[in-house]
Design a protein that fits this description.
This protein has 5 helices and 2 strands. With 93 residues, it is mainly alpha-helical. Helix 2 crosses helix 3. It is globular.
Length: 93
């Protein structure tokens, strides 16, 4: 099965997630490398999440496992990281 490309409506949502990750990381006094290592992902992967990208011009789509790992390290609930008002992803079928 081919990987799905998220619809354009996904990009602003995941960029807001990236901004929230950045705010929480700075408030926790952690570097990207420290947070990534503690969550079990690479610094490059984490940096892309803060940018809202998985690769150039493609919006990130982090796994639930990654979000839970990041929320554990940041000591917040997953829903505190997620932006309000999820986009309609019905076009992503």
């Amino acid at each position: 099965m081919a990987k799905r490309i998220p619809p354009p409506e996904w990009s602003p949502y995941v960029q807001e997630l990236g901004l929230e990750l950045h705010r929480r990381r700075i408030a926790a006094g952690l570097s990207q490398e420290q947070l990534a290592a503690a969550a079990g992902i690479t610094r490059a992967t984490y940096a892309q999440l803060e940018k809202g990208l998985s690769r150039p011009e493609v919006a990130a789509n982090p796994s639930l496992y990654t979000l839970v790992a990041l929320s554990n390290v940041l000591r917040v609930e997953v829903q505190e990281l997620l932006p309000k008002g999820a986009p309609d992803v019905s076009a992503w079928r």
